[in-house]
Structures are given as structure tokens and as C-alpha cells.
Amino acid sequence: MKAYVFPGQGAQFSGMGKELYDSSEDAKRMFDRANEILGFGITNIMFNRSDEDLKQTKVTQPAIFLHSVILARCLGDNFGPNMVAGHSLGEFSALVAAKALDFESGLKLVSQRANAMQKATEITKGTMAAILGLDDDIVEEVCANTDGVVVAANYNCPGQLVISGELGAVQKACDTLTEKGARRAMILPVGGAFHSPLMEPARADLASAIESTEFKSPICPIYQNVSASAVTAPEEIMKNLISQLTAPVRWTQSMHAMIDDGATEAIEVGPGKVLQGLFKKVDRKFETSSAAL
Fold first, then answer.
1. 229 is an active site residue
2. Which of 24, 67, 87, 88 is an active site residue?
3. How many other CB atoms are found less than 10 A from the CB of residue 48?
4. Is the pLDDT of residue 58 over 90?
5. What pLDDT was estimated at residue 166?
């Protein structure tokens, strides 16, 4: 059984999508439509500008989404998922690829999400840190016992958990986790405390947009970040998507659930190979690949 998985923020690179644009009329049409919807030339930034230019949240999120969903569309009949999942932002790509959401609605939501997250980071300064080499329950316990807002945010794979919250609280938690034997506890170069309570203003902003968007039943189950289980009901998909900004990304749990439910191969659709690496951390022999035309 094939699981098609879609990357999140951090997978971007200069020149991404150019090959698709040049080789497919369908891709060209979708990229050009994206420029109209967004109101700026995202293709120019993706194809011609520096990695630094791509790092702006309002650019990064739609750029990764576009690369992923246009690649999935261009695969045509070769895109045959038995299940899909996406890491954080990638969940929107997965929903469009699985036809729960149309392309234009998905792109508008991703753009609104990026802008809402940017606004939330300006209200309260926060950060994230990667904790390597400790069991999840130790990290969770330290977060719970640290003054201020700091929570487990991204369960990426066994032994790799990202925490998120207020600057001081994250630093304090890092110090404690280092004392408890973390191999590394490093602050990440991110603009805010994503997947934490500090994203509540963004969640509220995005909720109304999601609630006024039409969702359909996907062509296969989607393993959502919030539940880490197979979902097909549009109402449940919407509810989980609204919760996603302030809730942790349960990617470790999602990978285990997909494998337990019969996945024999993970195909990464979009830039980079990060998710393939995470599957290998769960099962070294598990088959992974990148989607290609």
C-alpha cells in the first residue's frame, strides 16, 4: 500500500518548481493562476530569487504547497495513494492532492495561514528548539514543569522532538533537557512559536476561513497531524485543521499508524527528502522514494 506524504516548511530551495513549469502546460497554467490568486509573482521568487527571499513565511508556505500539489497533479494516473499525510503545512497539500479541497481554495487557505502566523509572531515573541536523543515523555515532563509557555510541538521521529513557546521558557527547558542527557537541545532559526498556544490568534483567524471553505470526502484516508489517525469525514478534517496551529504535529505517531494500517511504501511529493529520512528512523527497511514525472 502506498502512502503519499507532503513536506512542510523548511523544504524550500531556490529554483523549486521551475522544471515543472517548463515541462508541463498544466503546471504552467496552475503556477500562473497562483500568481493571480496571491497578487504577487511567487513564481519569480521561487524560480529566480535567493534562498533568503524564499524564507519569508508569506512566500515559503505557498511555494512549498504549489510545488507539492502541482507535482501531484502532473503525475496524473501515476498518483495512486492508498493514504496521504502532510507535515504541518503539508497537510494542506495532502488535502488538495486527495481532492478534499480544490486547488484555489487550498492556496487561499495556505496564504491566509501564512499571514495569520506572521501576525501572531509579532504579538508575542516566541521560538522553537530541537531536542535530540531523549524519550518523548521526558521532554513532555520538562515542558510541563517549566515556568512560562513551552510545549512539545513536533514529534518528528523517535528521539527527535521539537518544543515551542516563549523565548525564556524554551531556553530554560533546553537547559534542563541538556542536564537530563539530551544529545542536543538547540534553538531553531524560526520566526515564532509554531504549534503552541502562542499561535491562538492565528488559529482564530484561520478558523473562519476554513469554516467558509467547501471540503469534500478525500479519495483516500488522510492521517492528520492532530489525530495521527485515518480521517475521511469532511467535518472532522475541518475540525482537525483548525486545531492544527496550536496543537502538536504528531508525525511519529502518524508514521506508525500508516505502517500499522498496511503502508508498505512512502512516496514524498514536493521539495526535499526530509520525510523519507523520518520514515527510515521508524523502520530502516521501510521503502521510501521521491515522486518524479
1. no
2. 88
3. 12
4. no
5. 97
State which fold the 126-187 domain adopts.
Alpha-Beta Plaits (3.30.70)
d(C-alpha 278, C-alpha 94), whole Å:
17
Q: What angle separates helix 234-243 from helix 90-97, to the nearest 10 degrees?
A: 170
Selecting among 195, 196, 227, 254, the annotated active-site residue is: 195
Boundaries of every domain in the chain: 2-122+197-290, 126-187
Helices (H) and strands (E) in the chain, counts: 13, 10
256 is an active site residue: no
pLDDT tens by residue, 156-172 = 999 999 999 999 999 99
- Return the half-sphere exposure (C-beta side, CA atoms, 13 A cut-off) of residue 123: 15
Fold of 2-122+197-290: Malonyl-Coenzyme A Acyl Carrier Protein; domain 2 (3.40.366)
288 by DSSP, 3-state: which? strand
Q: What is the pLDDT of residue 149?
A: 97
The verdict on pTM exceeding 0.90 is yes
The pLDDT tens digits of the residues spanning 252-291 come to 999 999 999 999 999 999 999 999 999 999 999 999 999 9
Question: Cell for 105?
Answer: 481554495
Contact 38, 30 (CB under 8 A): no
